[in-house]
Q: What sequence folds into this?
């Protein structure tokens, strides 16, 4: 007997362990339930802290097959203070309590999707699949392809045809079969549900979805441990299908249940791009349900118009006393640059969405400067460089001569000083007058 099994989120019926995501009785989604009383005896802060710095340190709280041995050190990404970003977002110098959880450097494929795939594929093997698959907005494609290569599994990846070139290449390179679909993510996903009925494949976000989703909890476990086994006041989390935000909530609840952290009310804030904001729109209008949208945004990793966990994401946000915001595409680009220039982190469009929304939430006083706030940066900027095309002009090359460089330096400094020179001249004129 394993210490976890599938359970219907609505009617509570249990389904054991099998590749299935929906309850046949009431058509609600399934999730993994654990025997927490049994876990209490085996889990402690000390035991976890002594383990290697990767997400497998929380193995007891993940649905892993009994014989499973991890083959990749995934997760345990840095959490660090972001004082300069805090000052820019909140407008006060006192905002020393802003943190970045940086999954832009999650291994092996530079997004938090490595976490969910690591758990899903552990079960794919156990269920006897030799082929794994997914519908993806990009990062999941990269993660499934890489982990499948490592595990010796075949991979079929379905993507909308307009995906960023780096995300397509970053799937091809692992030897996966890539199928580009002339349609948006929601159409790709529907197709995958049909294929899943025809082929005995492990679809990480269809028939393995309950196991996949559990991988997201490790973001929450790590945040708590890295804050010194305590919970923050606020979490700002980008949303696509809406799974990650609900699973960070589940992670915090489990840590409280197991006595690993003190109970605390954490506010959950969702972040979306305005061009695809079904969850934010519902939260703002007070609706408990999603109205599907047709995505139109550069934040393609978040472009899911009919989010599978939308209903639960709304619930998580509302019950926590949080809120959800959205930002325009130009704000996404500005926010990518702001994070890079203030903290040295190059994130993808999803991270731009998170930073942009965090700024709005500070300005609305929904997040206060002295509260401990964690921004979830979930993906890497090198995968979405196309959105910065045209932002930086290509400099004319100079000859490899010192004199040329000195002239270039002088010219650059003169240009940089123009606003200062003008201001000083104005001041002088005012004093003179
Ligand atoms: C998939 C993804 C998300 C959102 O994940 P959901 O669990 O579907 O809400 C956020 N950021 C990035 C970079 C992603 O790829
Ligand atoms: Zn049910």
A:
């Amino acid at each position: 007997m394993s210490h976890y099994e599938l359970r219907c989120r609505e009617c509570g019926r249990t389904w054991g362990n099998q590749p299935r995501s929906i309850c046949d009785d009431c058509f609600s989604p399934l999730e993994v339930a654990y025997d927490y009383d049994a876990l209490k005896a085996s889990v402690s802060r000390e035991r976890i802290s002594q383990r290697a710095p990767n997400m497998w340190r929380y193995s007891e709280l993940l649905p892993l097959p009994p014989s499973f041995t991890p083959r990749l050190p995934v997760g345990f990404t840095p959490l660090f203070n972001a004082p300069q970003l805090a000052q820019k977002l909140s407008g006060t110098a006192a905002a020393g309590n802003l943190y970045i959880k940086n999954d832009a450097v999650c291994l092996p494929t530079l997004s938090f999707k490595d976490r969910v795939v690591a758990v899903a594929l552990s079960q794919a093997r156990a269920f006897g699949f030799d082929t794994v698959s997914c519908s993806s907005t990009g990062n999941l494609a990269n993660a499934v392809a890489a982990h499948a290569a490592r595990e010796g599994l075949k991979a079929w990846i379905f993507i909308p045809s307009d995906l960023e070139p780096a995300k397509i290449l970053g799937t091809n390179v692992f030897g996966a079969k890539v199928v580009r679909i002339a349609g948006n993510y929601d159409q790709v996903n529907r197709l995958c549900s049909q294929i899943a009925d025809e082929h005995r494949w492990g679809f990480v976000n269809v028939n393995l979805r309950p196991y996949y989703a559990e991988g997201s909890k490790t973001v929450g476990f790590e945040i708590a441990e890295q804050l010194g086994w305590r919970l923050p006041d606020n979490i700002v989390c980008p949303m696509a299908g809406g799974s990650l935000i609900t699973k960070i909530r589940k992670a915090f609840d489990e840590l409280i249940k197991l006595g690993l952290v003190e109970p605390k009310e954490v506010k959950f804030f969702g972040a979306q791009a305005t061009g695809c904001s079904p969850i934010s729109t519902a939260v703002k209008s007070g609706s408990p349900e999603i109205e599907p949208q047709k995505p139109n945004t550069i934040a393609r990793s978040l472009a899911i118009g009919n989010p599978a966990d939308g209903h639960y994401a709304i619930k998580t946000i509302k019950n926590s006393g949080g809120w959800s915001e959205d930002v325009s595409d130009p704000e996404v680009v500005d926010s990518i640059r702001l994070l890079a220039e203030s903290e040295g982190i190059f994130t993808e469009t999803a991270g731009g969405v998170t930073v942009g929304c965090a700024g709005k939430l500070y300005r609305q006083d929904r997040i206060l400067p002295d509260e401990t706030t964690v921004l979830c940066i979930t993906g890497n900027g090198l995968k979405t460089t196309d959105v910065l095309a045209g932002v930086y002009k290509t400099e004319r090359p100079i000859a490899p001569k010192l004199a040329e460089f000195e002239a270039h330096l002088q010219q650059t400094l003169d240009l940089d000083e123009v606003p200062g020179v003008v201001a000083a001249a104005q001041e002088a004129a005012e004093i003179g007058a």
Summary: The chain is about 40% helix and 15% strand. The first helix runs from residue 36 to 42. The chain has a mean pLDDT of 94. The first strand starts at residue 4 and ends at 8.
